[in-house]
Design goal:
7-stranded parallel β-sheet; single chain
Length: 425
């Protein structure tokens, strides 16, 4: 499967997660990436690295960097260093996570300690690019290599020109990055069925190939804008109308057992969270995680005396995702607007939602069995789940059915219809 996106975002992460669960191969192509090639993960590509793709290998461990005899490599844990008779010859920047000490970049120095070129290493462990620097240590020339070390692409940054060399070393000159990007996209769509993440990408693709295009959007409004330019539109939201002509695939419900120590999550834009103290008192066996993008008011911070409450003011989106993956319950009981589309992110992961009829942030939640009139009723029913964990799976299944959360097999059925083709130039 071939995905084209502007840059990495939440939709890219969703698609990658689904394909990982399906154990299907996936390539993601970014149209706005002309730098930071070392940050690309396995299965990711750009216009300047597409022709270098090789689906085998592992990141290069820093101690395996090819060096002249008797040169020495050391590390302080954060970076690596290369020395020759006590003189520093290079600095090694590690890939994330740094603890694995694999190479992202190598900065090479001349006799006076000035950086003269930078080597970039791919997630497959081989050098893909070298930047040549001028007197001010700015990149003026960039060369890309295939896995055999052959020059395949040269970019003159000051002139904004690119030369591509075929297997016979015959060059084709492109006047700028944009023209080269269009050529690469033309080659891709000739060989692939494409899943497009973003309306603006369609303007870069030849309209004659629309039968090969599938577009992923967040809602029906976006779908209406692109429907006549693609074969099929996939909408990442529940079907709000029976008249919707589009394929809706929302979330991916997975089996999630109740752990010994259940985790409940609340994301709020207000210090007013209905019934929070009562929940803390009634359920000492549950850890309650309350996050916000800003500082928190005293109505929340005063509750920190409870040992089962964890407050996260100034929460980042990445940390929100991390907590969500560990959650058993999501409580949609906060006043004010919903932030981070938090309850949607929870139910699409198959996390059981509890909410109140007068506070719920989405009208469709009112039809759920776990939507209650009062906090007391919510407490009573939540206790039933803890006393009989088998109920959890049944409620999640009914929640997924009522909210039209897709199953993993729904995605498999759809993507199995797309044949994977050769993805080389």
């Amino acid at each position: 499967m071939f995905v084209i996106a502007k840059k990495t975002d939440d939709r890219v992460l969703k698609i990658k997660e689904i394909f990982q669960k399906l154990e299907k191969p996936l390539t993601v192509f970014y149209i706005d990436c002309f730098d930071n090639f070392d940050s690309l993960e396995q299965g990711e590509s750009t216009a300047l690295t597409y022709f270098l793709m090789k689906d085998e290998g592992q990141p290069l461990f820093f101690n395996n960097l090819p060096l002249p005899p008797y040169w020495e490599i050391t590390t302080d844990g954060l970076e690596g260093y290369v020395y020759d008779q006590g003189k520093k010859k290079a600095r090694i920047q590690f890939r994330q996570p740094h603890s694995e000490r694999t190479i992202a970049r190598v900065y090479w120095y001349d006799e006076v300690g000035k950086c003269i070129w930078i080597d970039y290493y791919s997630a497959y462990g081989w050098r893909i690019c070298r930047d040549f620097l001028d007197e001010e240590e700015k990149t003026v020339l960039r060369t890309f290599y295939n896995s055999d070390g052959r020059d395949v692409l040269v970019e003159w940054l000051q002139q904004d020109k690119i030369a591509y060399f075929d297997s016979q070393k015959n060059p084709t000159i492109y006047p700028n990055r944009h023209s080269f990007l269009l050529k690469v996209l033309e080659n891709i769509v000739d060989r692939e069925d494409i899943l497009i993440l973003g309306e603006e990408i369609l303007s870069l693709l030849p309209s004659s190939k629309k039968d090969n295009y599938y577009c992923l959007v967040d809602n029906v409004t976006e779908a209406d804008k692109v429907a006549d330019q693609v074969n099929q539109v996939l909408v990442l939201s529940p079907r709000s109308s029976e008249d919707s002509p589009y394929k809706h695939l929302y979330g991916c419900a997975l089996d999630r057992p109740v752990p010994v120590k259940p985790q409940a999550m609340i994301i709020t834009n207000s210090e007013w969270v209905e019934g929070l103290e009562k929940l803390l008192l009634h359920f000492p066996e549950i850890d309650f995680h309350v996050g916000a993008l800003t500082e928190m008011g005293s109505r929340l911070t005063n509750l920190s005396v409870y040992s089962n409450l964890y407050l996260y003011p100034g929460m980042s989106y990445d940390f929100f995702q991390e907590l969500l993956d560990k959650s058993t319950f999501y409580l949609d009981i906060q006043h004010d607007v919903e932030i981070l589309a938090s309850s949607l992110r929870a139910v699409e992961r198959g996390i059981l939602l509890y909410t109140l009829d007068n506070l719920t942030h989405h009208e469709e939640y009112k039809k759920l069995e776990t939507c209650y009139d009062t906090v007391d009723t919510l407490v009573k029913n939540l206790r039933q789940i803890l006393n009989c964990p088998q109920l959890y799976g049944r409620l999640v299944a009914r929640q997924s059915e009522q909210l039209e959360i897709a199953r993993l097999e729904d995605y498999r059925t759809l993507f199995d219809r797309w044949e994977k083709k050769c993805d080389c130039l």
